[in-house]
Amino acid sequence: MIDDDILTFLRKSIAKNEAEAQKILAEERQKRLDKLLSDSGLGKKFRKRTFSTFKVTKDNHVALTAAQNFINEFPNGKGLLLTGPVGTGKTHIAAAIANELIKQFYTVIFRNVVDIISLIVSTYHQSEKTILEIINTFTKADLLIIDDLGKEKMTEHTSTVLYQIINKIYEDEKPIIITTNFTSEKLEQNLGERGNAIVSRITEMCRPIVLSGRDWRLKNASS
Ligand SMILES: Nc1ncnc2c1ncn2[C@@H]1O[C@H](COP(=O)(O)OP(=O)(O)OP(=O)(O)O)[C@@H](O)[C@H]1O
Ligand SMILES: [Mg+2]
Questions:
Q1: Residues in domain AAA+ ATPase (predicted)?
Q2: 66 in the same domain as 30
Q3: Are 70 and 120 within one domain?
Q4: Which range marks the domain in which residue 11 is found?
């Protein structure tokens, strides 16, 4: 029979250890989230673009529902091709999805196409191994988000490597989110040499979602 003093002592020690273990777990969890965020490439500004700061209107509610469905089905389900004019919320929605999935401990790579192209340009005349490393950088996460596709004209080299990135996602059956201001025809033109093959794969992998309405940048500036 254990006497009462010993029992009280044991209970207190267990409670204390449990509290310490919970604290260590919470710290580890936060560290992992911070690392996932910094690896994702989501800048400080984009970390504030969440669903809670997204105002719903008749012009964007379909996109919002599609984004929420995408998260619920993740990592299954189709990707998203978010299109529409300047300032209608395409990047905001894409960043909100990234923030939400990172909170669920998924790995996400979020990059503007201009940054992707700069990296690809740096591989020009480099070994096949360097190019494969770049392709791996963009395809290893659970989700790739390419912001502003078509914004920059492509050379034969950048178009070919971008094709290899998209094709790897396609072959691995991984999800992808693309934002763009352009129609498919214009995208094809802007993406150069392999434009046709890139747009064809994106069309198969993604659900097209159109955002419309006024430019939120102008709306926010005048309010
Ligand atoms: N529904 C919304 N509620 C609140 N703020 C919004 C909403 N949609 C967009 N914004 C804000 O308006 C600004 C422009 O939005 P965003 O960058 O997502 O536009 P975009 O469609 O990606 O434009 P672009 O084609 O120029 O890249 C951002 O500051 C964003 O947070
Ligand atoms: Mg944008």
A1: 76-203
A2: no
A3: yes
A4: 1-40
CATH code of the domain covering residue 165: 3.40.50.300
Cβ contact 144:176 at 8 Å? yes
Q: Does residue 180 have its Cβ closer than 6 Å to ligand 1?
A: no
**Overall domain count for the chain:** 2
Dump pLDDT digits (tens) for 139-158: 999 999 999 999 998 999 99
Between vectors from CA 200 to CA 186 and to CA 120, what angle results, nearest 5°?
A: 75
Segment holding 209, helix H or strand E? strand 206-210
Q: Which of 86, 92, 179 to mutate to test the pocket of ligand 1 (most atoms within 8 A of CB)?
A: 92
Residue 36's pLDDT band (boundaries 50, 70, 90)? very high
**At which of 9, 24, 40 does a domain end?**
40
